[in-house]
Design brief:
104 residues; mainly alpha; 86% helix
């Protein structure tokens, strides 16, 4: 079977779902503004925000930062060492050729 034949017939996007929820709340005369501005709702939003930040920091960001940080430091140190060595070689070359020209 083709993929087109397997697609579900009911496909609701998240935006459409949110609009439907708002319409239902309006039909049942729920005051959305007072609910959103209430202390309890704000506490819930703050709690979810803090939990999301904690999850992001502990589970995703810190392991990535540690692995990438070590790699970045090692790579940077080796490349800086190469640049310093090349700079030293070039300075010695110009110094050697400068002395030879003076002596000749």
């Amino acid at each position: 079977m083709k993929d087109d034949e397997r697609k579900s017939r009911l496909h609701i996007h998240l935006g459409g779902l949110i609009i439907l929820i708002i319409i239902v709340l309006i039909l049942f005369k729920v005051d959305i503004v007072s609910k959103v501005q209430s202390r309890q709702f704000q506490k819930n939003v703050t709690y979810v925000e803090e939990q999301a930040k904690t999850f992001w920091q502990n589970t995703i960001w810190n392991p990535i930062k540690t692995k990438l940080g070590n790699w970045f430091v090692e790579t940077t140190n080796t490349e800086i060492k190469k640049i310093q060595d090349n700079f030293t070689k070039n300075i010695l070359k110009t110094t050697d050729t400068g002395e030879e020209k003076i002596q000749n």
